[in-house]
Amino acid sequence: MKNLILSALLLSACTAFAQKEKKHQITENTQAVYAVADDGKTKDGLYAVRNTKDDGAIVQGYYKNNSRAGTWYFFDNQKKLSLRYNYDTKKMLYYDKKQLDNVEVKILKGSDEEKKNASAPLPLCSTDYLAALLLSRMPQITNAPGGELDVVIDARVGADGNARYTVGYKTEKGDYEKQVIKLDDNSEQLLSWIPANYNGKNLDADFIMVAKFNNDPNTQRRTRWYN
What does the pLDDT profile of the chain (227 residues) look like in tens digits? Predict the structure, then answer.
């Protein structure tokens, strides 16, 4: 059933994009393809982020007058559905909790009860895609000698849903360095967040991922999560 749904989505996407489409390269291996209105700028219609290596879907959704609408689908690097979210009702319809296996959440402000019982902030994309997008902005990692590098990705998600990103990594000398990641407008628009929440109150929080980044030039670069 899942494969049938995905096939239908991709078929409808190809039909819409054949009418009027634009493309935007996001990372070395990912590309956004989307329909636009007659002005050639306003996103209006189907939108997809694809893996250009294997043509796998990463994000599939719909824009209406430059705003996300309806149900969006997000996939991990194994092409498995990681979450479904409806932008009209602002409700999570499905979330694969395995994505949080290598995530630590810290509530930054609030009472002890709020810090203990608040929900985690959640990115509206797979953690695979979040990591790949942020690490692609770090040439000192992507251009490092082949092998696995220890990385710590920290998204500081405010109560307003805006996030600031920091990546820490070990250098060849064994030193630990941190760098703030700034995204261009097109990339930043892809990273929406649901803030941490307790009893209807949004809270500031850190969403921290610890992983190894495989930078072997002879294979597809990818993030391997700690077990």
Answer: 445 444 445 444 444 444 588 998 888 888 999 999 988 889 999 999 998 888 788 999 999 999 999 999 999 988 899 999 999 999 999 999 999 988 999 999 889 999 999 999 999 999 988 988 898 888 877 776 666 778 899 999 999 999 999 999 877 777 788 999 988 776 656 788 999 999 999 999 999 998 877 665 555 555 655 54
Same domain, 113 and 90: no
State which residues form the domain around 3.
Answer: 1-95
152-155: long-range contacts at Cβ-Cβ below 8 A with a sequence spacing of 24 or more?
Answer: 152/208, 152/209, 152/210, 153/208, 153/209, 153/210, 153/211, 154/206, 154/207, 154/208, 154/209, 155/121, 155/123, 155/130, 155/193, 155/206, 155/207, 155/208
Q: What are phi and psi of 38, to 5 degrees?
A: -60, -25
Measured on CA atoms in the order 12, 14, 20, 24, is the torsion positive or negative? positive
Contact 226, 102 (CB under 8 A): yes
Number of domains in the chain: 2
Burial zone of 30 (CB within 10 Å; 0-12 exposed, 13-18 middle, 19+ buried): buried
